[in-house]
Amino acid sequence: MNVQNFLLHYGHYVAYGATWLIHILYLGILVRRFARLRQELTELGGDK
Amino acid sequence: MNKLFSFFATITAFLLVYGLYQALVAAPTERTMGDVQRIFYYHVPSAWTAFCLFLTNYFCSLLTLTYSEAIRRAANRIAILGAIFGLMGLLISEDRPPWLPQAEGFSWVKASIIVILIAVFHALLIKGYFLLGDRLGKLFSDRARVILDAVAVSSAEVGVVFCTVVLVTGPIWARPVWGIWWTWDVRLTTTLVLWLIYVSYLVLRRFSNTGEIAILSATLAVIGALDVPFVYFSIWFFRTQHPQPVMGKGGSLDPRMLHAFLINLLAFSCFGAMVCWSRVRLELLHRQLEEAHAMKSLEGADAARAQASLPLNRSSE
Amino acid sequence: MTSFWSLTLATLKKDIRLEWRSKDALNAMLFFSLLVVVIFSFSFDPNAEESRQITAGLIWVAFLFAAVVALNQTWARELRNQVLDAYRVSPAPATALFLAKALGNFIFVILLEAVMTPLFIVFYNLRALGPAWQLIPVGILGTWALVVNGTFFAALSLRTRSREIMLPLLLFPISIPAVQSMVEATRIILSGEGAARFWIVLLLTYDVVFTTACLGLFEIVLQAE
């Protein structure tokens, strides 16, 4: 099954999958940074 | 604030799911292209969201620049310059003199009027924001500056994410339909150049080690924005010289398709706004942390000096 | 107005004199340009038919590399001797400094191009089938387009890590329409097909717009550093 045929029939699934993969990756990065920041803020609050 | 955010996030999630259902199931299959046309329901809304975000960054950068006196003084000059260029263009009659480029469908009168309007709009925006800051006081103005910068970096970052989606889904669509992964047409190239400019903007932000990065990156954003019309025109003219295969949208627009498209457009716009909102909160939290660190080290230094029993002038901060 | 130009010229003359006294950097870059031409000639065989069609692009890419190397050292001397702090507190207009630096870079890059062009002509048996004189405005306008933005971005890159990579990273995306114009104009003139007029006018417009923008925004950059 060559690329042309594959994309013609399943291209939209690939595209949707790629879209959500990119978005989930970015949201994951945001969540991780949020978690780390909150941890640092509580540490700082605790030190005082 | 959190409740409002959760409320909108839920709505957005519903819209996205509904949009996906519309795109995959409810919308009919296109006659000429087949199922692969469904990519449009994701590709175009993502492009629209990305451009809106980049536009947001442009306005934030512009307003950040007004915090510099040089720009405030220049506001008048910008309007005058734009008016001059515009008037020069207006004076060129439709019967173009031979030394001007002849190009189909390009009206000098329309272009000049647009230039004048853009210049006047910018001057009014800059002056208006400055007056607003004056009226509302310095405290508001400083806080606004921080928020503006947070929105600038957030909209740039989220815009790049959405733009990446556009650049990935585009070729996936193009390969089966046009037979080629990529072509240098106006829309694709402008999108790519915008992506490149904003990635370089983000790299400048990441690699900078000065506190003034807000205003410096704002200059980059403005210069990048100036570049976009040039990209557009150069590719457009290039294509009139080198005829490329005709790439029409192909196929009719069924009302169910339009419905699916509009739902996804709304869904992705909301999604973009929500992610940007989250990113702004993250940025403001980050600055809060930095301030807390700074305060802590200041207090530590103060305490050490107090022990040395020197008369200190504790400045109120 | 007279003091502006005299200030610009004075700064420019000082830069040229300093550069001329220690010709090390100059010689190194001249040799670099030569190497670039040779490497390109090896990689893109001049005898192949395909190479002739991309000669215009090759030449401008080579010029672009040389320009980046030259631009990277724009503010090096100022940084070393804290000259920028002096400029910040002086009443001298920042635009004079910028113009002097840009003109200095322009002269430098034109010099490098003047060395590379005969080599390209020799290696690629170049012959302009169109109006060859049009190559002069293309060369001047194109080089200025790269130099004016490059000088500005070199200043933006001053307070960043990896300063040397920051400059091309910022310069290349913004220069895309300018580079396309230069290459297309050169290709049209060399092959003699069509008119390069549109591209030259586009280059001119690009130069006017970006020179104005860079001059206008430079004061912010200087104050912010």
Write a concise keyword list for the protein shown above.
heterotrimer; A: 48 residues; mainly alpha; 0% strand; B: 317 residues; 8 helices; globular; disordered C terminus
Determine the strand fraction of chain B and express it as a percent band: under 5%
Q: Label the structural class of chain C.
A: mainly alpha
The level of helicity of chain C is over 70%
- Count every helix of chain C, treating DSSP H or I runs of 4 or more residues as helices: 9
Secondary-structure element series of chain B: HHHHHHHH
Termini of chain C, distance in Å?
26 Å
Helix content of chain B: over 70%
Structural class of chain B: mainly alpha
Q: Could you say which overall geometry of chain B the principal axes of the C-alpha atoms support?
A: globular
Describe what you observe in this structure.
- The complex is a heterotrimer of chains A (48), B (317) and C (225).
- Chain A is rod-shaped, with a radius of gyration of 20 Å.
- Chain A has one domain (1-48).
- Chain A is mainly α.
- Chain A starts with a helix and ends with a helix.
- The model of chain A has no long low-confidence stretch (mean pLDDT 86).
- The longest helix of chain A has 45 residues, at 3-47.
- Chain A is 94% helix and 0% strand.
- Chain B is mainly alpha-helical and 317 residues long.
- Chain B starts with a helix and ends in a 10-residue tail after the last helix.
- Chain C is mostly helical and 225 residues long.
- Chain C has one domain (2-224).
- The relative contact order of chain C is 0.14.
- The mean pLDDT of chain C is 86.
- The B-C interface holds B 65, 68, 70-71, 74, 81, 99-101, 103, 193, 196-197, 199-200, 203-204, 207-210, 212, 215-216, 219-220, 222-224, 226-227, 230-231, 233-235, 237-238, 241 and C 149, 152, 156-157, 159-162, 166, 169-170, 172-174, 176-178, 180-181, 184, 194, 197-199, 201-202, 205-206, 209-210, 212-214, 216-217, 219-221, 223-225.
